């Protein structure tokens, strides 16, 4: 869903063979794969579910490239500090850091991003661009109305881990707390499209944003209310389509 965002960032920063990229929260590795295909040396760091990291390894292992096999791809299950420990002594510092997991849709997500950035900044060269991503204004993101289901169902149990609307200066505030200097931003349209309602429900549940709602109620109720929230976005051919806008901030390391 975020491929247009990855493309816009890499094009703007001219990612290519000179790029040594550290991807925070790399997930299933799609953004890293796109950077590697442009010639960048990539390192991904994540402590996500084993299944997502296994998919990243499948995508990025040299065998998957055939005649274009690359040795400058590394995946680390853990923290940015673990990436530093795993690096070869001769590996140069990173000159691009990305945090493509969008903030602005879950309470407390900006705090977690700030901790990642503080740990990653010492691994980058001076003045290196650091890319942060957030959801756009709720009125520009059709998925926002669907994510409110998580809040409605989870709030009786807990006050954290639920949806919240994105704020105008979310990214700038995170960058400031991490000691980074803002140096440009942009917005990219990233529509969420699904083949049918079942795919839409499974896709949104896989984000983890509804985990608290499932814990507070049960899976059947979450599935039911999520389906109802998605209904206005289902088209006559059965596909589900939700236009969204995401914002990115480019900040510089000190």
UniProtKB/TrEMBL annotation:
Gene3D superfamilies in UniProt: Vaccinia Virus protein VP39 (3.40.50.150)
InterPro entries: SAM-dependent_MTases_sf (IPR029063)
Protein's recorded name: Methyltransferase type 11
